[in-house]
Amino acid sequence: MAAGAKRIEYIGDAVLIEGDCLEILPALGRVDHLIADPPYEDELHEAIGRIRRNDGQQMIQSLGFDGVNASRSKIAAMSVAVCSGWVILFTLAEGVREWRDNLQAAEAKFDTTCFWVKPDSAPRFNGQGPARGAECFVTAWAGTGYRSWNAGGKRGVYTHCVNGSSRHGAHPTEKPVSLMRELLGDFTNQGQTILDPFMGSGTTGVAALQLGRRFIGIELDPGYFDIACKRVREAWKQPRLFDEPKPAKPVNGNLFDGGAA
């Protein structure tokens, strides 16, 4: 079993690992790309407990996990070390510069900041200013040679509703499957291995399997891990969203062969 792993589930072309990614990442082999939604910046966590709604409804008091500020530099360094291609990390606008600086300090080639526009995002419940209608994600190249992606000169703006038909709803920062499919289609290729060290409820894993990518997901919370296993297992049972046959080459050493990582 991988160092730091409490449980490992093998589901088709996916390997799901329960545990702390900061303990597990050093034991993994290299992957093609890393796409993740780390915890939000401390500033948002601190603000959540102070938000009051003007409609009389109860506001969420906690996201259930700590802010990222103290661990950001370590996450950036480990992400670059394990990745042979794109490192893509979701963040609030307040965290963009810090992520850029930390990724560059880890010798990745910072590329750009992209935006996920949310047409149905929640309003500002206390009515004291504009609500957030978009979320950022930073992109950096951790591989050798020139950056490579599939979308030509496409703008880095992705528009997807938060509350689509595929939304599970158990995780407070769940990303739409449609958004993750578009990102995977633009930044990755069929047969490549995608790592998500902050897997949450498994949305990136669902999208990866749908598009013929291999997936490694790490999640610390056992409840979210169970949800991710269920969603990924169900996705593996469904028809893939591509026509070409999947390559059968081994990926990441013996991890996909059911052996110890």
Give a summary of the structure in a few sentences.
Helix content is 26%, strand content 20%.
Could you walk me through the main structural features you see in this protein, from its secondary elements to its overall organization?
The protein is of the alpha/beta class. The chain has one domain (5-243): 3-Layer(aba) Sandwich (Rossmann fold). It has helices at 21-24, 42-48, 72-82, 96-105, 177-187, 203-210, 222-237; strands at residues 5-11, 14-19, 33-36, 86-91, 109-117, 134-141, 157-159, 193-196, 214-219. Strands 1-2-9-8-3-4-6-5-7 form a nine-stranded mixed sheet, with helices on both faces.
Number of domains: 1
Global mean pLDDT = 86
Rg, Å, rounded: 18 Å
CATH C-level class: Alpha Beta
Global shape: globular
The major pleated sheet works out as:
9 strands, mixed
Helix-strand pattern: EEHEHHEHEEEHEHEH
Count the beta strands: 9
Instruction: Indicate the CATH architecture.
Output: 3-Layer(aba) Sandwich
Strand line-up across the major sheet: 1-2-9-8-3-4-6-5-7
CATH superfamily: Vaccinia Virus protein VP39
Low-confidence stretches: none
Quaternary structure of the protein: single chain
* Fraction in helix: 25-40%
Individual helix count = 7
- Taking the alpha carbons of the first and last residues, their distance comes to 6 Å
- Find the CATH topology: Rossmann fold
As a percent range, the share of strand residues is 15-25%
* Structural class label: alpha/beta
